[in-house]
Task: structure prediction
Amino acid sequence: MGWGDEVVAAGQAQRRYDADPSTRIAITDLTGKVRWHPIWDGNPILATPMDVANGEPVRFVMSAPNCRPYIVYPFSVDTGWTFNREFKCREHRARIYLTPSERWRGADALERYGSYVLIEPYTKHDNFRWPIARWAELVAACPDLTFVQHTHADSVLIPGVTHFEQATFREACGLLTAASAYVRSESGLCHAAAALGVPQVTLFGGCMDPEVMAGYPGQEVICDDGPESPCGSWKPCRHCVDAMDRIDVADVVAALRRVLRRH
Result:
């Protein structure tokens, strides 16, 4: 998940801090080394490696490559993921602290386009990919809504959508702050949307486990509940492709309408 893993790590720290705010939290790797990630910039409850080196008393949360809380270890590309159902991301909701210039992207989009639904179809994972034609159908099915697509170098531009300029992860978070809702297949930005309090529709398909990875307030989840799901496959998987293909546009439209009515 990349950046999303680090959002979840901040959520682990936030839960620990909320239970006892007496000291800040430092996030470590598997060896106990304190680490830092740019998505944590500005977070007042997190101690940096320098803070700890300078002697600040802290408590520790371990979350890093090879020790993610939602995964059962060991695993490999061949075996795929097994999910730790004792861990629930929804119980570890992070906070993200954006700079004024990052937040400005959302304010600028809101001023330019009015209320908008943010989307981005691109994912590097074949198993999480909803067909581009379905995204175009989703937009066409909601002519009363303005859709904005945050893009990057590998994005496929959806017709009928306002295409915002390329955005880093934190800049995309700025666009999220002003969105009426976010629609996306499961990704790190879905965890960021939860951290920022943005309602969302998340397409899970058949790979990831929504019991572990979803359930945030304001989140509608569309997933495959067949006997092989979630399969956790790291490799391109026919089961996962078929599961994403079974997600119907009408179901996504209905979920989007529900989150918009609630918010």
Summary: The longest helix spans residues 3-19. DSSP finds nine helices and eight strands in the chain.
